Amino acid sequence: MLVIGVAFGFTIMSCNKTLNLKPLDQLSDAAYFKTPTDYKTFANQYYGYLKNFTTINGLSDNPHSDGRSDLFGGGGVYGSGTNIVPVTEASFGNAGNWTVDYGRIRAANYLLDKAVSYPRPAEIAQYVAEAKFFRAYTYFDLLQQYGGVPLITKPLDLTSPELFGARATRDQVADLIIADLQAAIPALPVSLSANSADFGRVTQMAAQAFLSRVALYEGTWQKFRSGDAARYNALLDKSIAASAAVMASNQYALFGTAASNALGGNSTVLGDSCLKYLFILENIKSNPAGITKTANHEYILSTRYDDVLKPANVFVSRSTMATGVAQKFVNMFLCNDGLPVEKSPQFGGFQTYLSEFQNRDNRLKYTIKITYQYYWYSINGRVNWTGDAADRSNSLGPAKPYGYGNQKWISERQLVDGKESEDYPVIRYAEVLLNYAEAVYERNGIISDADLNKSVNLVRLRCNATNGMPGLTNALVNTNNLDMRTEIRRERTIELYDEDFRFDDIKRWHSGTTDLVTNVGGTAYGNATAFVSPWPVLYKYTGTQAELGPDPVKPVPTNAKDANGNLILDQTARLFGEKNYLYPLPSQQITLNPQLTQNPGW
Amino acid sequence: MNVFYQTKHRILRLFAVLLLIACAVTASAQNKTVTGKIIDAGTGEAVIGATVLAVGTSNGVAADLNGTFKIVVPANASLQFKSIGYTSVTVAADFDKPMIIKLEPSNKGLEEVVVVGYGQQKRATVSGAVATVSSKVFQDRGPINNPLESLQGQVPGVVVTRTSAQPGRENWNFQIRGATSTNTQDPLIVLDGVALVNNAELNSINPNDIDNISFLKDAAASIYGARAAFGVVLITTKKAKSGKMDVQYLSTISQKRLGLQPILINNRQWGQSLKEALTNDNYGVAPTSYLWYQLADLATHPPDSLYIDITKLPGYAGSANGVLYNGTPLPSFGDVKDFTFFDTNMQKMLWGNATSTQQDLSFSGSGDRGGYRVSLGYLNDGSQLKWGLNGNQRYNLRLNHSYKFSDRVNLETNISLERNNIQQPTLYSYGGYSALSNYGQPGLPAFTSKGQPYAWGTVYSAPALLKYGGDNKESNSRALLNSTFTYNFAKHLTFTAVTGYHVWYQDSRIQQKQVQFYNYAGNLLIQTNPINGGNGGSNTFYNRSNITEPYYNLAGRVSYDNVFNKVHAVGVMLGSSYERDEYNYFTTRTYNLGSDDIPSLGTGVTSGTAGFVTNGETQNHYALGSYFGRATYTYNSKYNLEVQGRYDGSSKFIADKRWKIFGSVLGSWLISEEPFVKNLNIFSTLKLRASYGTTGSQSGIGLYDYLQSLNVNTGGALLGNNLATSVTTTGSLVSLNRTWETVVKKNLALDFGILNDHLSGSFDIYRNQNNNMLLNQLYPGVLGASAPTQNIGTLHTWGYEGSLTWRSNIGKLTYSISGTITDNQNKLVHFGGANVIGPGYNATVEGYPLGSYFGLKYGGKLQTQAEVDAYNAQYAPTGSTNNIGLPIPSALANPAGQMSGLRPGDNKFVDVNGDGKLSIGGTTADKGDLVYLGSDNPRYSYGLNLGLQWNGFDFYSIFQGVGKRAVLRTGSSANFSVPFLSIFQGQTTSYLGNVWSPENPDAYYPNLHSAQNNGINNYNYQPSTWRVQNGAYVRLKNVVLGYTIPKSLLAHTHAIKGLRVYFSGSDLWEKTYIHDGWDPEVTRTVAGNERYPFYRYLTLGVNVTF
Predict the structure, then answer these.
(1) ipTM score for this prediction
(2) What pTM was estimated for this model as a whole?
(3) Is the peptide bond before B530 cis (omega within 30 degrees of 0)?
(4) 10 Å Cβ neighbour count for B993?
């Protein structure tokens, strides 16, 4: 008995200790954040926040999607303003939403919080700056969606009063974003060469370029809502300065220009098709000249892919191929004389399938599929890149007269679906140039030809060097009774098409009344007798390639026609009103924290 | 001890003398007095309280504390002697001398000894809801992969459901008394006193080594405290038999025959029906320019060769675009090189019959000092999937040994070595048309005319993927050791120590090989898949992984049992235990092998490139410390009271929240031992039982949730030339205040046996309340992380179960009929306010049972255009919207005058809430027109067993079924129940001839529509009272016919002691109301390996004893 008693007593004493077990295969918070590498590795997760191919139009929807804008028919419930207050926020792939964004903000705050007690701050300054950059990047996403949101600048726990705090003002959020970016810039690397182990990380110029975007966004938002002039002018000045810093850095150039060749590679060899091939540029042969990504000096920050290490793994080509734009967008492309279709004598009209494509900005034929032309992709990829009979025989066949099919992002090489590896441009140099022109014009009400020549005209003329298109000048505007603002915005819309700028641009311009409320013009051909299908048709990829192709089973459309005999497809008037400039907060968040107020009108 | 017995004997002798004197004095009357003593035939001890009854009268007495009795009966009387635990005896009264009645202990029914937590109890004094099954349930079943599969319908309160028929991966689910938590729940399984780490350990055990299983269903389980919330299963293996060596050989061979499967349409039926569907979609106008219509049309009148090679036709330029066949354009599929119209059926190509065998050999025996049982087992389970390497082999060796060192010291050691090898084709679920998905359209061959893998565009031949795509081989080795050391300090005081050690070792080798696919002519390579060279799921690779999981269990207990004054039986047990589990796993994979023929981790040609060799590792552990105890008190075998408790501490919780007490009180009253019931002479047994107690669960809690840890993620963004590795916080915040889920269990029951135990049964009602169920609690999104689960939910479960057995004989024919019924219901009382519902399956809705379905109320079919117009005018006027997918009609140009939208033959739904609209609400408060359709939880599970024995022949049958269950297909299995939901995927013949038309207005199916117009399909087939299927079924689970060769015939062999041959069948027949063709037992999803069709088993077996 004694033995047992002792044995039991011993078990009792030792038991609690034997129940203290620590994780064996996981890092513990307590042992981490001891070296600069720890901070760097923690910061690596932020690069997953960058926008990528998963949510471009055709693949899925996202709060900034071009699919919600006027460039595509209808715009869905968000574009037409018929969305309702959601209970919980929809998930948009990699694109953030309320809770996803605050999760990312927590990750940034987490590093910033740990960094405070790091004994040698200089060693980790770059990663602290990255945390600030991505905190700014994420708050900008929230600002664009919701306006002023709660400002959380430290990791919270279950007892933090901030959980139940009120929303900050729009200005406070914008100021935090700008402050974070400005604080980050000096600590970021000035430049990173393409063969550097850190290539792809945020640089000073990436932060400057993003600052130019943010300040322009907020400056114009305020300006077109009669905000405080001192504030919006200061914001526009910040945008101009940030863009100018990037332009002055000489690190970036538009792909397909001599300036780009000077930085390395020979992209001018692609001629006026350079822009098309920029968007499908891979490190294996993806264009007739075999140019690879080393010739790309235009992307300032991108989500990078690699044909071996990191293919897109989403059906970039197949899905974007299944989208088509509204005629309104096609009509925005200028004619070769620099004039819009309404004014240009060169415009060929809508008499045949091909007439409207004559004498137009070269970017049109590389953005929109033209009937009877040959296109390639996947197992119907290019064979010899010459466009000869053999090349054509393996193509998808001549485009059919079903409407305006998208061509951007569609690879030409023979590939397995989802194995595309072109980079997704998060920030590219063309945007910075366009930001510059717009900010200068909106700041001063005027823009000089010199400023136009170092910004808008670089973008406009890179693909139009040979067709005689003039640059945008004050003289051209005045002579032809054009509007400088419209022309600057036109350039932005055409150049940044399908990169998810348009919907947010309309919001900051406060131009929904003119841009989104009208019916979207028809997109099929008035004279097409062989017409069998309305357009655009959103067909889904469900199994075989045979699924691709329009849907002739649908009833012949009964849509009204416009003056040109084109079908009006978007028959339901858009109801995009003042409240739609901001998304409604998910009602569940308001239930959980009654201090949160809903956006006006919702 | 000897002194005690001697004293007793002296008293007995004295008693006998006194009785003799008494007899002599009173032996003159007509009614004479009989005296005697009733003793146990084995031990010779008095059987206290045994009854003596004059047969044919109600005249009876009970034996006293010494087992003696005295009764006055007529001279010719017969006396019946009965007692619980003994076989009753009837003999003629003997008036001449005191009768010595030896009662043989009985081993049937209520009299047996029952294994309970940390000990045994006599069935008669058990107060908890403890069900037992003997080894008999595993007999005659044919090869058994997992012992659980034999328990369907056999144990009241235990519901066993199967989810797959894949050999080695059946994934048996079993629940004791229904759902008790929304977190995963697995009953605790204890094998020979040592807990199993998880139920998967049963996958390699040899069911023929099991002697009996006890199920602790109510608060009786609380002796296992923190793991008892979902019930406890105690498995005891077979031990040595007394006497000289016994050799037993069991051999069975079974044929697996395909069970219920949807019957697929053939190519002609597909073409004809698709044309009809597409024409319907197009409002009566055949869409002749549409490629699928063209293909369907070709299928209805294919060429005699049943084959069109597009590449040989004039005008072919890489695709079918613009190619003419007999002057008409072929469907312009871009990636298709030919069209085939064979009479193929993927279901039949893939699945077939298989053979399974099981062999067992055992030796057992014992002597004065100890005993042994050695058994060897081999199972070879064939797979019904006809292609590729398939199946499961199991090898078992078990050595159970006991050794008596002295009268006080005994050691029992059980060692089991187990191994099972599971093979499956790696690509059985690869791509959208694989063996485990919905297949391509009918008409496609599996192999080309030259025998190569065939592909039609991106539809790869499933058989070819299985045959050539590589193997997935998994072997599981387990060693289970336990030793029980018993030391008797004194007559009533015993110390028992149990040492358990289990180790599981898994070795898994998966190779994914490249398959090249050709056109049917065999001269054109169409596709190559998976692809060499990449490092994703669709690339070739070779993967190896290992799991090593040792588990230790040390437990000691002291028990004291004594009887005071012959009526007060007292037992006390105290013990403690410590358990610890260590899990180690690593995996490594090499992509882009130099050769598919030599799978080796070292032969990757791009191994130096990042991402082409990937590794993973998991290591974790947990421990559980416990103190437990039980006190029992029995008064005169009639009143039983039991108190038990356990104090558990778990490594999963922070130290100050780690320990918790669970306990229960159980009581029973053996009414049949009361004289007033005894004298009724009806009940051989009548017992009332009640219990109340608490049990715990920690499922839903991670192993280290109270510590903030960081995750390492590889394969992130491309930075520099490599994929970045990143470290992130785990998505959830740590929790410092969580504790165990505590389930309160209440039970009230009655056991009875009447008519001399011809009829016996028991009935239990119970109620379980999980009052602090762990749930996620929502915090404002600005928290930026998910909050840990908290003890905030409440789930109530209640139900009943019963069993009834009739045993008797007619001459030499003995027979038994028994039935069980099990029912339970549950309700989520508190679930964090979760009131969101949607049409279809809802896992958790506050105020409703788990797994509830909601849907619209079906209102019949629209029969006439006038009805359509009225329905549209009411529910789909121009400009209106609705959220039930009801199309708003608009005028069509072609055909002119026709409106789009619904037509006669489409479904109607009912405006249940009377608001004039049809709508789907989103919450339980605002359901719109949704109604509750029932629950996925099976109710009224029952089993019916019939057994007959006659002259060496035996017959046994089991019916098993479910009385009520709602089934609504979700996921891809829905495609099989909705014609052309996907235009090309295999559909079943169930709709043929059963589609609405004016001539067939009562047909089940609405108008056919295709994927081209899924709006209408989605509308017609949305969850509704029409769509939900009745999951009730009854099935002939098992039937056995056996013959035991008479011993007299065997005697001259001088070797064979016993020989029995039998023929049995499993799942041979069923009655089901499911009309989409699936087996009524499958899950609502029929996803992944649930697609393995359930089989019918035909078994021939022989048992030989030497």
Answers:
(1) 0.89
(2) 0.79
(3) yes
(4) 9
